[in-house]
Design a protein that fits this description.
Chain A: Keywords: Membrane, Transmembrane, Transmembrane helix. The complex is a heterotrimer of chains A (about 180), B (about 250) and C (about 525). Chain A is mostly helical and about 180 residues long. Chain A contains seven helices and no strands. Chain A has one domain. In chain A, helix 3 (about 60-75) packs antiparallel against helix 4, helix 4 (about 80-100) packs antiparallel against helix 5 (about 105-130) and helix 6 packs across helix 7 (about 175-180). Chain C is of the alpha/beta class and about 525 residues long. In chain C, about 30% of the residues lie in helices and about 20% in strands. In chain C, a hairpin with a 7-residue loop joins strand 1 (about 10-20) and strand 2 (about 30-35). In chain C, helix 2 (about 105-115) packs across helix 3 (about 120-135), helix 2 runs parallel beside helix 4 (about 150-160) and helix 3 (about 120-135) packs across helix 4. Classes of the chains: A mainly alpha (about 180), B mainly alpha (about 250), C alpha/beta (about 525). The complex binds adenosine-5'-triphosphate (2 copies) and magnesium ion (2 copies).
Chain lengths: ~180, ~250, ~525
């Protein structure tokens, strides 16, 4: 249930970022090749946050996907492609958590999950946005900035947000919340 | 789009977009977009409605093209180079194709999907697609919260003012408020889960008050969507303009 | 599992039952032994925090698992543990807002039936029947977001009635309702024949409807149990001492009488003060201008007015009550008066004395911090105004902002007076309904504002807290402050209604319906 709420809230955040972030993305992208990836991390947040808070298999994917669906239904500029991206990005984060066997939820895992989501996003966009036709330099720069952004804006931010939320007591129903508050 | 099952619309959107995604060429994309504009006019969907539902897309499409124009793998005559920017025949062709492709995929799907009734979509997802009720209804109930969030935002701002904390105009105040809103949303989620349990949610088999069914009409919509995509791609193949994504440039 | 028809009334057995919330050291309920026979109607009473809501949640099977708390003893419905029988009991939660689940009215009522696998045709029959029963006559596709507080309460009850549960559990179902709304809810309940457990502090109204009264003891066990007449006759004064409301007894709160005011032609002369009452130089004199004046004020939401042409003066040393049916705009008006929202038309003006040190005579233009010592607001929904993680921090917020001296002593005193000391470290959101209400009032009193605006300060309060809260407001007013209280509570009006501002449910056209009545 929290997963669903998280998904919807993040979907709203996406919608906001679809305008604010996209402006930055495009400004960076038009001026410099590939640096637009630097702001994209926010779109990867859903998977990280979902995974860290709920700690169950599938949570990262579900949250990111639902967020994408919500943002599409509100009229995202990428239409159905939003949903494909959501699936890929969620899977990226999910995979990292799976590798940690859903037992590690520290800052390291968070950053890796952000990077995982970034890698998957990059791969999908090769086809989805036809990025595969781009020059190699562009693709490398885009990959690096996407990974950095995923690590910081999705990974670190996601981790910090989880802790901050836990401290407010809003997550007491989850292990993630009780751990931080020293209740478990 | 009333009367069409929302699930059919979603399936149609997917089936329609996949073939088009295989190619970056202006013929398939242009043809598909053209067919839709004609169809929409025939269905009485006004240009105003289309613009209202798709305006972010209309802004984004040329920008995607611009990025392609400047940084795509060079091919054919090179017109301009500056640092990493290379404008070549290939990149011009790609830029046009991508711009039109973004529109061709985005416009019809947004026109069809924006404003879908989430309740009907949930009904369809659970009854026809047989997704687990827990997920579908959880998501549906959460969507209602999105509406409540606006009211929450207002009362949180008032509460913070009453408690002397912040005048929410400042950036710091704004951030604090945004975070408070997130916390409220989480709490509401927990409360909602309790309320749903209090009405026997998750106690076993359940029925659905409203039946969701697929009709012939839905089949027509799905077939039409797939048909348009295949026709467009077919046209590109026939005219030899089809260009598989990643097949490399160099005309 | 549950038959789709009407289900049999359930039998409740609690043997040595108890529950401790995971984040608490002491159990909320302990050692409870209780048998309720099928079809019995029970009024469950007990002081605030005694564990009433916890018991109802236990009966509904929604307390959760071992991660959420520790269970002792056994709590069964028809011999099967309640936790395994979700749906056998239907519960209306204490927080009225928490009960709404789906976006439109009809679906929301149908939700419970669907979960019980009731066949489709039967669902819609039940939906119409239960909406009728609670007197909610909107179209089924009406968005639930557009319902007023009272309508929402009815919707919640309809949703549970439609499940036709073997056990109906109602947690303060009428606390936020006006008189008519409450009566309608009780009528709806009276038509059912299942086992019923209802928690409600308005004892008198339920007497004709229940055949048994059970009073929970905070430490565990029962203070009293039996037919209403017998219980109140035998244990009446003991119950009163324990903080439980008893039929017919009116709480008493000492007041120094309000100051005489110059009488205006359309008002009866004010009561004359009993005895001279020493007036210190700081005390307000009747000649002082009103602290707040609302003139031609219109208030509303999103630019559309709910009320127009409201005129009101708030005077030092006077306690004013605002009354009126659900949804007439009392809260909306109170917010404008308190400087939290700008009026749509007209103006709310503070006296020069109250506005001293600020940049405007209009409270909504003041800084948040300037409001603290001038106008304090208690929200209708306590949860809305909590901003920290513990009861103690919550109380410290205001004093810290206004740089009060002796902050921790002040906080300690407030904790003590409102009996929250044992909860100082608890998270505000985990408090019981009554505890939350006390905390929200205490946070506002902590900065000693000159004007208090209180939205339903006494709803859902036990007798002890009620007296305490009313006493605090009375003391504030008698010391020269002003109070404006929105309330449905006639006892409160009797004690603190120096003047009454009544909003009549009226269409916008004939807006002269707001009238002042002297009590
Ligand atoms: N979710 C929770 N987590 C921790 N403690 C809780 C929780 N809910 C209730 N409590 C505590 O359990 C005790 C009993 O609370 P409960 O809500 O059952 O009281 P109540 O009798 O309904 O009181 P009121 O009349 O004020 O609503 C209180 O001390 C309360 O603070
Ligand atoms: N956030 C909102 N947006 C739009 N309309 C609202 C909002 N809040 C309240 N209303 C409407 O404004 C009217 C007045 O609401 P208000 O909360 O002031 O009533 P009230 O007199 O305090 O009622 P109650 O006794 O139920 O608390 C109602 O019709 C209500 O439906
Ligand atoms: Mg309670
Ligand atoms: Mg109100």
């Amino acid at each position: 249930m929290i997963a669903a709420v998280l998904g919807v809230v993040i979907g709203l955040l996406f919608t906001f970022w679809n305008f604010a972030g996209y402006a930055g993305f495009m400004a960076l992208d038009a001026l410099t090749p590939g640096f637009g990836g630097l702001v994209a991390g926010v779109w990867l947040l859903g998977g990280v946050l979902g995974g860290l808070i709920i700690r169950k298999p599938g949570a990262a994917l579900f949250v990111e996907l639902l967020a994408a669906v919500v943002s599409m239904l509100l009229g995202s500029q990428w239409a159905v492609e939003t949903v494909y991206s959501g699936i890929a990005q969620g899977l990226g984060a999910e995979l990292i958590l799976l590798l940690g066997r859903y037992r590690r939820f520290g800052v390291g895992t968070a950053v890796l999950a952000g990077i995982g989501a970034a890698l998957f996003a990059w791969t999908l966009e090769l086809f989805l946005s036809g990025n595969i036709e781009m020059s190699t330099q562009f693709l490398v720069i885009y990959l690096v900035s996407l990974v950095v952004s995923g690590a910081v804006l999705a990974g670190l931010t996601g981790w910090a947000l989880t802790r901050a939320l836990a401290r407010t007591g809003a997550l007491d129903r989850f292990a993630a919340g009780r751990e931080v508050r020293g209740l478990a | 789009m009333t009367g069409v099952n929302p699930l059919a619309l979603c399936v149609a959107a997917v089936l329609y977009s996949l073939p088009l995604l295989t190619s970056v060429d202006i013929v398939s994309a242009g043809a598909a977009l053209g067919i839709w504009l004609v169809l929409f006019t025939a269905l009485g969907i006004t240009p105003a409605t289309i613009v209202k539902r798709t305006w972010p897309l209309l802004l984004a499409a040329p920008l995607s093209g611009l990025s392609m124009l400047l940084y795509a793998e060079p091919g054919g005559t090179v017109h301009l180079t500056w640092w990493l920017v290379t404008v070549s025949d290939n990149s011009i062709e790609l830029a046009l194709a991508i711009t039109v492709r973004v529109l061709a995929i985005g416009v019809p799907t947004l026109v069809a999907l924006v404003g879908i009734d989430p309740t009907r979509l949930a009904d369809a997802l659970a009854q026809i697609a047989r997704l687990p009720a827990r997920f579908v209804l959880g998501a549906l109930a959460a969507v209602r919260l999105a509406g409540v969030l606006a009211a929450d935002h207002r009362s949180l701002a008032q509460a913070r003012r009453a408690r002397g904390l912040s005048d929410t105009r400042s950036p710091a105040g704004g951030l604090a408020l945004a975070f408070a809103l997130l916390v409220t949303a989480m709490r509401r989620g927990t409360m909602l889960a309790t309320a749903m349990e209090a009405r026997a949610f998750g106690s076993g088999e359940r029925t659905w008050a409203r039946e969701s069914r697929l009709t012939r009409r839905d089949a027509v919509v799905v077939a039409a969507a797939l048909g348009v995509a295949l026709a467009a791609v077919g046209l590109a193949l026939a005219t030899g303009t089809f260009r598989l994504v990643g097949s490399g440039g160099g005309a | 599992m549950s038959a789709p028809g009407t289900s049999r009334p359930a039998r409740i057995v609690a043997s040595g039952w108890g529950w401790r919330h995971a984040s608490r050291r002491h159990p909320a309920v302990a050692g409870l032994d209780l048998v309720i026979e099928p079809g019995e109607r029970v009024l469950l009473l007990g002081p605030s925090g005694a564990g009433k809501s916890t018991l109802l949640a236990g009966l509904a099977g929604i307390l959760g698992d071992t991660e959420d708390g520790v269970e002792t003893g056994a709590l069964t419905l028809d011999g099967v543990p309640a936790a395994h029988q979700r749906g056998r009991a239907g519960l209306v939660l204490q927080d009225p807002e928490a009960n709404t689940i789906l976006p439109v009215l009809g679906d929301d009522v149908a939700f419970g039936c669907e979960n019980l696998a009731v066949p489709r045709d039967e669902i819609w029959r039940r939906v119409t029947r239960s909406l009728d029963a609670v007197g909610l006559r909107h179209p089924l596709d009406r968005p639930t977001a557009h319902l007023s507080g009272g309508e929402r309460q009815r919707l919640a009850i309809a949703g549970v009635l439609a499940m036709s549960p073997g056990l109906l559990l109602l947690d303060e179902p009428t606390a936020n309702l006006d008189h008519d709304g409450a009566a309608e809810v009780r009528r709806a309940v009276a038509q059912t024949s299942t086992t019923l457990v209802v928690v409600d502090h308005r004892v008198d109204e339920w007497l004709g409807l229940v055949d048994r009264v059970v009073v929970l003891e905070p430490a565990g066990g029962l203070i009293a149990d039996g037919p209403p007449d017998a219980v109140f006759a035998r244990a009446g004064s003991a119950l009163e001492a324990a903080g439980v409301w008893v039929p017919g007894s009116r709480p008493h709160v000492p007041r120094t009488p309000p100051l005489p005011r110059p009488s205006s032609p359309d008002q009866p002369p004010p009561r004359s003060p009993v005895g001279p009452g020493p007036l210190s130089p700081a005390s307000p004199s009747p000649a002082d201008p009103p602290l707040l004046t609302a003139a031609g004020v219109a208030v509303g939401h999103g630019g559309s007015a709910v009320r127009e042409d409201l005129d009101l003066e708030v005077r030092a040393g006077e306690s004013l009550v605002v009354t009126g049916p659900n949804g007439v705009g009392k809260t909306t008006f109170a917010f404008a008066l308190a400087g939290l929202t700008a009026p749509l038309a007209g103006e709310v003006r503070a006296s020069a004395q109250l506005a001293r040190g600020t940049r405007s005579p209009h409270p909504h233009r003041w800084r948040a911090r300037q409001l603290l010592t001038r106008i304090g607001t208690v929200f209708q929904r306590p949860e809305h105004q909590f901003v920290t993680r513990s009861v103690r921090e919550e109380l410290a917020v205001g004093p810290r902002l206004v740089r009060a001296r002796e902050q921790s002593a002040l906080v300690d005193e407030l904790l003590e007076r409102l009996r929250l000391t044992h909860l100082a470290q608890a998270h505000p959101y985990t408090l019981s309904g009554g505890e939350q209400r006390r905390l929200s009032v205490a946070t506002v009193l902590a900065t000693a504002p000159r004007v208090l605006v209180l939205d339903e300060p006494t709803f859902g309060q036990d007798r002890t807290t009620w007296t305490e809260l009313a006493g605090l407001v009375a003391a504030h007013v008698d010391a020269g402050g002003a109070a404006v209280s929105v309330t449905h509570d006639e006892d409160y009006v009797r004690v603190l209604g120096d003047r009454r501002f009544h909003l009549e449910a009226a269409p916008l056209e004939s807006q002269s319906a707001a009238q002042e009545v002297r009590v």
